[in-house]
Amino acid sequence: MHPMRQLYLAATGMNRGKTTFALGLLAALMERGHATGFIKPVGQRTATVDGVPADEDAILVRSVFGMTEPLAQMSPVHIPRGFTKAFISGEVVDDLPARIQAAHRSAAAGHEVLLIEGTGHAGVGSVVGLSNAEVAALLGAPALIISEGGVGRPIDEIVLNHALFARRGVQVAGAIVNKVDAAADPSLPDILRRGLARHGIELLGTLPYRPILSNPTLSMLVDQMPGEVLHAGDDPERVIEHVAIGAMQPRHVLERVGPGSLLIVPGDRDDVIHAMIAADRRSDGIRRTFGRQSRRPERTDLAGMVFTGGYPPRARELDAIRRSGLFAYLVKEDTYQAASKVHDLLVKTHPSDLDKIAEIKRLVADHLDVEALLERFGAWPAPIMRRAPEATVAGARAGTGALRSLPGPMRAGARRIARLGDELRRR
């Protein structure tokens, strides 16, 4: 019987692609015939399914892969609003670590491989004693750290997270850097590998940037940003490829937008709004008046427009928007506040995002060495050492004559090693 193998997925922050990577890796492991389980010990964004509250990522994984494990097992602990204050005030009396351990044991049963998904960076959850580093240590799982593209920032973030895992005694299996634009700079993967190696951290792979996975959709904007839908548009799941602000003359705005752009503009800027509608509804399929090109040549229209300040466009422009099929949304915030909220939209994958999920599976299968990743999984329960390392025991004995030159605690430690070796030999 081989022990089950497990890996703890952590990220360096939000929107780094941890859940994206988890979906792709789970698919790759299952396609190789491994009986694979999943658990997210601590969740912050929860939903309720059949009366059972669970983390959204656990719900997603269960749905995508048709898992039958109870949601309470896949998502044992949730941190709802107000929980932190209640915990600090001593109002939370549940043994949360014990609940996690029990769910972990159940999740491990019958599986060869277990993927454990953390929440955010290594320190998230520290306030309630359930940081990623603490939970990984509790479950005896090595950690894989996921960051996103760049050079300096991902290396800095990975090193910082590595330090907290190491402090808790958690082995770091390596790192994955997501959203890497290697097409623009082919040297990036090698630079990242060498940069992390300087800190003793192995880069286990990079994933390329894909707008469909990294950028929000129009429906996400509506879900997360309060406002009024003036027109839903033809495709609520349209990916927002680019965001522009209409705070200049119309001809200059046109130079900065293109197919897939979301234009944020005050609702009383009739000149800009009229120019956008006129450019977008050209029937020849070529937007010569747009200055920006799309990554998707089959799409030639704007993603939509967000009108700020609480000012709706005039009735004439609004009728034209509806006829053209453009998405139009009205918010009370000023243009700066609206742009900031759009920038901070949380990009999440839903079970209905079939194209997105298919792309995730392809990315991991095509760009990562899954077998090499599997080798970094740790055994659980950890194998019991039946024989003390010969070199350690022999060294402790051979050094007996030199023990007098060591400090007291070190002498005692060396003697304990020798006695342990003798005891294990007798067994």
* Sheet having the most strands: 7 strands, mixed
Distance between the termini: 22 Å
Task: Quickly give the structural class.
Answer: alpha/beta
Question: Judging from the principal axes of the Cα atoms, what is the shape?
Answer: globular
Care to count the β-strands? 16
| CATH architectural arrangement of the largest domain | 3-Layer(aba) Sandwich
Percentage of residues assigned to helices: 40-55%
Mean pLDDT: 84
Report the uncertain regions: 283-287, 385-410
CATH topology (level 3) name of the largest domain: Rossmann fold
CATH class of the largest domain, anyone? Alpha Beta
Characterise the protein shown here.
It is a single chain. It is built from 18 helices and 16 strands. Helix 6 packs across helix 7 and helix 17 packs across helix 18. Strand 8, helix 7 and strand 9 form a beta-alpha-beta unit. About 7% of the residues have low confidence.
Tell me briefly what this model is.
The protein is of the alpha/beta class and 427 residues long. It has 18 helices and 16 strands. Strands 1, 2, 7, 8, 9, 10 and 16 form a 7-stranded mixed β-sheet that branches. A 5-stranded mixed β-sheet has the order 11-15-14-13-12, sandwiched between helices. Strands 3-6 form a two-stranded parallel sheet.
